[in-house]
Amino acid sequence: MRYPQLQTACFQFPCIDNHAHPLLAEAHRDRFQFEGLISEAQGTALNDAIHTLACHRAAAQLAAVLRIQDPNWNSVTSARTRLPYADLCKLFMDRTVTGIQCLILDDGLGGVEDFAEGFAWHDQFTSSPTKRIVRVEIVAEAILKSISRQHADSDDASILKSFNAALHESLTNSANDENVVAFKSIACYRTGLNVSPSGSEDAILQCFQDVLKALEETGRIRLAHKALNDHIVRMALEVAGQHRKPVQFHCGLGDNDITLNLSSPSHLQAVIKAYHNTPFVLLHSSYPFTREAGYLSAVYLNVFLDFGEVFPFVSGEGQRSIIRQVLELCPTNKILWSTDGHWWPESFYLGTIQARQALYAVLSDVVASGELSEGAAVAVVQNALFHNSNKLYNLGLSPDLTIFKQK
C-alpha cells in the first residue's frame, strides 16, 4: 500500500465500538433470519437483501474467514450453522481479529433479556470492560406499567406525577452507574426526530391518558404518542446534561417502522439548541442524511457524528461516499465509529473490517491529493476509531497496542 503509516493506523489500531447490541445466546442462535445481518428490511422484504451488492461483498468476506471456496450467501449460511457457537463467536468476535478493545452496548432491545447475552458476557472478546447504553423509551415503558399497577385507584394526573418522579429517579441512577456511559432515544422510530423543546402539560396528560387506556385494554404498551414521547426525551436530555452523559439518537437508516422524512437529524436542531449542555450523538451516519448530520456537528459544540451501521448494509462504494460526506464538514475530533453489531458475531467482524477498508481508501485518496499529510490522516483515523469515543464517554482508556500481536 502507498502509505504504510496510514495502513497501520487503519488496520491495526485498536477501536472503541461506541454503539452495538448484544449477541444472541447459544440456545437462540437461529432465532432471527440471518439475512438481517445485511439489511434492516423486515418480513418478506428481507428476502430481497441477498440480491444487493452489500450482500455479495459480505458473503465473499465471510467465506474467506470460513475458508469456503464457493463464496455465496447459501454456502456461508450453511457453514456457520455447522460450527459450534463458541467457535463461531471466537472466529468473528475475538479482539485479535476485529481490534475492538471496548464495546458499548445498547441492551434495551425488546425481549433481549430472554434470548441474548448480558453485557458483561461480552468482556471475553475485548481487553477493556463492556459498558452500557440505557434506552430511554424502554425504561419509561417499564416504569409506566409498574406505576399504573401501583396507583390503579389514583387519578391520571397523580399517576403522571408519580411516573415523572420514578423516571427521573431511574435516569439519575443510570447516570450515576459506572457501567452506563450513555443514554439512547428511539424517538425516530416512535414519533420522529422533530422533538419539541417544550410541551403543554395538558397535551402530555392527554397522551398519558391514551397510553393508560391502551394498557388497560390490551395489557401492552408502546410509547408512540408525540407530546408524551417528547416529554420523556426532554427529561432524559435534562438528566444527561446534568451528568455530562451523551444521548445517542437513532437517525436515518432503519426498518420500515420509521417515517423516513422525519428521520433526518435536522429535525433535532431545536432541542440541540435548547439542551446545549447535553452531548448529542447522531447514530448510523444519519444515512441518507449524512450531510445534514455533518452540518449539525460543525455548527453545534454538543453534536457528534457516528459513522456506523452502514457497514455492511451499504455497498462498498456507498460506504466510501458516506465517509467522504462525513469529512466534508464534520470536525474530525467529533467523529465516532461503531459497528451497530447485533445478534450475530459476523456483524461485528463485517462492521469492523469494512470500516477499516473504507477509511483507508478515502483517506489515502485525500493524502494523495495533497490536502492532508499522511501523519494528519493517521491522527484522523486514531481519533475516529478510539480517542474521540474514549473522551466523549469518559472511559479513561489507553489504546491496547498489543491486540493484534496476541494472535
UniProtKB/TrEMBL annotation:
The lineage of its organism: Eukaryota, Fungi, Dikarya, Basidiomycota, Agaricomycotina. InterPro entries: Amidohydro-rel, Metal_Hydrolase. GO terms for molecular function: hydrolase activity. Gene3D superfamilies: Metal-dependent hydrolases (3.20.20.140). This is Amidohydrolase 2. Pfam families: Amidohydro_2. It comes from the Eukaryota. SUPFAM superfamilies: Metallo-dependent hydrolases (SSF51556). Residues 229-371 form the Amidohydrolase-related domain.
